[in-house]
Amino acid sequence: MDHFTYKSGILHAEDVPLPRIAESVGTPFYVYSSATLEHHYRVITEAFTGQDAHVCFATKTNGNKAVLTLLGRLGAGADVVSVGEMRHAIAAGIPAKRVVFSGVGKTRDELTAALSLGIAQINVESEPELRALSEFASAMGTLAPVALRINPDVTADTHDKISTGRKENKFGIDWATAPALFRLANTLPGIDLKGVAVHIGSQILDLAPFRAAFLRLRELVLSLRGEGIALKRVDLGGGLGVPYHRDDPSSPAPSAYAALAKECFGDLGVTLILEPGRLIAGNAGLLVSRVVYVKEGAARKFLILDAGFNDLVRPAMYDAYHEILPVEQPAPDAPYEPLDVVGPICETGDLFARQRPLPPLAPDALVAFATAGAYGAAMSSTYNGRPLVPEVLVKGNRFDVVRRRPTLAEMTALESVPEWLK
Ligand SMILES: *Cc1c(COP(=O)(O)O)cnc(C)c1O
After folding, report:
1. Which of 43, 100, 199 to mutate to test the pocket of ligand 1 (most atoms within 8 A of CB)?
2. Which of 38, 124, 220, 367 has the fewest Cβ atoms within 10 Å of its own Cβ atom?
3. How many angstroms is it from 122 CA to the middle of ligand 1?
4. E-state strands within 19-108
5. Residue 100 pLDDT more than 90?
């Protein structure tokens, strides 16, 4: 469900026609629908009504300050993976008490910052990290609220680069050695052992791997309880997939996911933490781009856009599919022909779609990549000397630039030429 629809033949974000935004900020740009963000946040929280569950939005999917402020106002916490994200989320108004910190390589500076800021939970991913945290917290005379992230060794049927819960992945504590580490955590100074965490991957379209992981967690919580180690929190991570094809309803319903959580943990009296990212932000954003040229190659016809893989890397990085919508609605009888949709970057991999059937599109026409609200702007770069594109937030019939396009001077302001070259 999103709020990007054709009205009078023009694609709108809520009540704003996209060409109006293009005129104001130039292309390419990202546009987010506040109504869609709010809707998705409510869908997941309402699915867990009656369970003691807290939603911590995975800010790595979309860290725009306005987006974080909006979700924070609705009651969301944040799942962060660096001290930068942590400070940014707190600056956006998300209370530290609702922030959880994940990641395999948290540095000393990051862990001590987390302790000083008083965040809710640090998800520890290895024994060396646990020992380091114990040392830092003891030295600071404080207690670190810890969950141990375990690797449940389940295979989620998703792209290799976003699968995280198999034993050959770098994430989490090996399932077999986890109980020993819980015992250690329970005795180390400076550690306040709160719970257990998992995150098995992203864009998971089937509940089976979640079930397998949750049952392992349940088993672990019960067996530790038998030893007198009472875990109060279970952090289920994120990973719920979203539909990238409009007519494809195959992604699991949040209600079914919530029912599964209840089945696995409902009788344990634990607090659940959820870390959805894509589920909330994915379908709440579009990347809007302009056609620069239509080029007839020897073997293919190319649609050359002003957006490149530096702006949206998912197709190049994960072979991801994004629907490409002409902003001007095609006539019902428009002839479609297969085009290779590419950007201007000097790399063959700068390819958004191969042989995508599209209606006639002339230079200057606008197109929109759907489902670009998560891992879109957040993963963009300035490769090829291209400025990060503006981000716009729509609410009803108003739109606001929530990140402006930097000038070339701003982009290069941190660079300097040594004296000896002058
Ligand atoms: C990336 C990540 C998430 C969010 O994953 P989604 O698939 O976007 O829901 C949640 N938790 C952790 C630890 C992550 O690394």
Report:
1. 199
2. 38
3. 15
4. 29-33, 53-58, 77-80, 99-101
5. yes
